[in-house]
């Protein structure tokens, strides 16, 4: 479904902290410094109702930045090594754009999140914040756009520097903004910088060379195609029961769905049975730090889990076999993370943060449990939170929550080329849910998103 509407944007301006904040420089952690994190993560947050949203958000952001003052700062080279970064607490602020939708007939927020909307570059450009035309030296850590709709719904478009926060940290900051928006005078969680916990333990400096990039597609047929798959809870329960029956063990929703996507994709792509296929997902490693991180820490603290197997074993094996691969890799995370922190390298297997960027590698991230779904600015939590595809040549999948009131899981994938799309989607939904319904699949053309970064 193609929606027609125009978005009128303000010129945008910087929102500074409501009070004077500390200056100086703050060191970044060894994970913050990773070259692969030097980008902005883009998300869209859809809300069904709000009043004077931009005005409320502006005041709440200014209040939240008094305690989250590092987010009002800027990154700069530290001088301690080629490309090494430090955070300058400059107090400059967060970039905010106010926007409104003009349309006839009326378009509602619900029209954007039912899974059938075509998310092309133009629509994303309309709802995401962008810097001014003269942007020399302009590089805020956070950019936000508040777009209001005639139905009183609104969409928050967010760009967040991954150098400063992971998903849990970004959700924590938005939660702080939401508390001030609802009239709180004190935060329920006081923010803590705490990056020194991931400084002293690491012996070797991080390479600051640009991360390797896959070659651009030689023609449009090699660009990855997006497909959105809503998985009903009964279907998830059946997959878990099947694993329990075959193995006598339990598995999590993330484990069984990640294994299912990996297996379906491996079946769909034409690779030799002896070719290595790689699954990469990211584990929160906060529980493995001793002493623990301070409460309120909002920096990066995750570690990639690399699962490798011959394509034939995944393609021809059972789903239970693929789940076991995922579980075995998860069981090694604590030890592998400790070795990486202590030794400063990836050992014989190479740097885990630099997996092969090839068509045979699939990246999976989980968004449903980061905390974005509970952020309430005063008119209720979001109906939907949508992460934006950051590359049309690096295969990826996001395990997310579906729009309310739907239950289950939404899989947002951009992991196969056009020739493999039908087979991939068929593989994901070939087993019907208990109620007889097939999982709905919404293939969506979604190209050229790299131009937004």
From TrEMBL:
Residues 205-225 are annotated as: Disordered. It comes from the Eukaryota. Transmembrane segments: none annotated. The keyword Acyltransferase applies. Residues 209-218 have a biased composition (Pro residues). GO terms for molecular function: acyltransferase activity. It holds the Pfam family Transferase. PANTHER family: ACYL TRANSFERASE 4. Belongs to the plant acyltransferase family. Coiled coil: none annotated. Keywords: Acyltransferase, Transferase. This is Uncharacterized protein.
């Amino acid at each position: 479904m193609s929606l027609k509407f125009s978005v009128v944007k303000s010129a945008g301006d910087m929102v500074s902290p409501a009070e004077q904040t500390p200056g100086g420089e703050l060191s970044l952690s060894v994970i913050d410094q990773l070259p692969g994190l030097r980008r902005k993560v883009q998300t869209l947050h859809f809300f069904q109702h709000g009043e004077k949203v931009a005005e409320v958000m502006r005041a709440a952001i200014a209040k939240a930045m008094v305690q989250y003052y590092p987010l009002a700062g800027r990154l700069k080279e530290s001088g301690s090594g080629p490309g090494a970064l430090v955070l300058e607490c400059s107090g400059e602020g967060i970039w905010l754009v106010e926007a409104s939708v003009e349309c006839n007939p009326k378009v509602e927020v619900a029209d954007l999140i039912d899974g059938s909307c075509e998310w092309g570059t133009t629509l994303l450009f309309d709802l995401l914040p962008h810097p001014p035309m003269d942007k020399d030296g302009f590089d805020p850590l956070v950019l936000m756009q508040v777009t209001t709709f005639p139905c009183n719904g609104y969409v928050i478009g967010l760009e967040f520097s991954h150098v400063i926060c992971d998903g849990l940290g970004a959700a924590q900051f938005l939660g702080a903004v939401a508390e001030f928006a609802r009239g709180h005078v004190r935060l329920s969680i006081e923010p803590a910088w705490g990056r020194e916990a991931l400084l002293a333990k690491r012996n070797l400096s991080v390479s600051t060379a640009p991360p390797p990039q896959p070659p651009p597609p030689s023609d449009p047929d090699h660009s990855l195609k997006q497909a959105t798959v809503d998985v009903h809870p009964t279907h998830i329960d059946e997959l878990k029961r099947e694993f329990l029956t075959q193995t006598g063990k339990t598995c999590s929703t993330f484990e069984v769905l990640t294994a299912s996507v990996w297996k379906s994709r491996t079946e769909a792509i034409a690779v030799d049975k002896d070719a290595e296929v790689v699954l990469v997902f990211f584990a929160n490693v906060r529980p493995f730090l001793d002493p623990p991180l301070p409460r309120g820490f909002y920096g990066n603290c995750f570690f990639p889990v690399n699962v490798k197997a011959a394509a034939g074993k995944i393609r021809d094996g059972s789903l239970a076999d693929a789940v076991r691969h995922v579980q075995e890799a998860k069981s090694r995370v604590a030890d592998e993370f400790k070795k990486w922190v202590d030794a400063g390298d990836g050992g014989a297997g190479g740097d885990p943060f630099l997996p092969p960027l090839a068509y045979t590698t699939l990246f999976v991230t989980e968004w449903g449990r980061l905390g974005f779904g509970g952020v309430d600015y005063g008119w209720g939590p979001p109906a939907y939170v949508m992460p934006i595809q950051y590359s049309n040549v690096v295969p990826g999948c996001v395990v997310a929550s579906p729009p309310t009131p739907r239950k289950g899981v939404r899989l947002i994938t951009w992991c196969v080329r056009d020739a493999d799309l039908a087979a991939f989607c068929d593989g994901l939904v070939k087993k019907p849910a208990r109620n007889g319904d097939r999982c709905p699949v919404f293939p969506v053309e979604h190209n050229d998103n790299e131009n937004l970064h």
